[in-house]
């Protein structure tokens, strides 16, 4: 049995051909990584954010990948950029969502990374371990509260949208490289991780987070809803995240 066939059998979410995914906050950081990885898995991508120059660069990179043969209204494109500011008025957000919908005719999955509904699909909200009761740090009133709210919203949305066959889950990442955490990564986190993190390691967004996103996009997760998936190498188990002591 070929290695690709074995992978497809063990991890069917390694290929996601035919899935149409909208990713908000896609211009940089985790959102950008999610777009690239999902495109490599076969998804069509609607990349949404405020910074159109960065979105176009991302979409150009994705569209240079091998051309897909999936039907739709995308004129052969694998990724399309849509300007979206989640702080805008409802009408502006609605117009952006309508434009995103029109690109391919429908959306299967929303990765709510900046942080719509169909009668079937998956919504993936990106929160943080800062939203967990066991993780608190000075100066985190607004950030921690907003991330905790995302997890609560996830559970309520799962209740309300379940009747429409829409799954809603959130992912609570630990510390990963991004524009926000760039200064922290000037420290040698691998040395700290070996001393303080239960798994004695840290890692990149891909595959630590991207593999979980693929699973939640795939139909293998059809019965998974209302959950918050913690991806932090066990760093929050002691109750203090590693970056609070830096």
Automatic annotation (TrEMBL):
Signal peptide, first to last residue: none
Family membership noted in the UniProt record: Belongs to the short-chain dehydrogenases/reductases (SDR) family.
Organism, scientific name: Sesamum radiatum
InterPro entries reported in the protein's UniProt record: NAD(P)-bd_dom_sf, Sc_DH/Rdtase_CS, SDR_fam
Protein name according to UniProt: Cyclopentanol dehydrogenase
Pfam family, one: adh_short_C2
Recorded superkingdom: Eukaryota
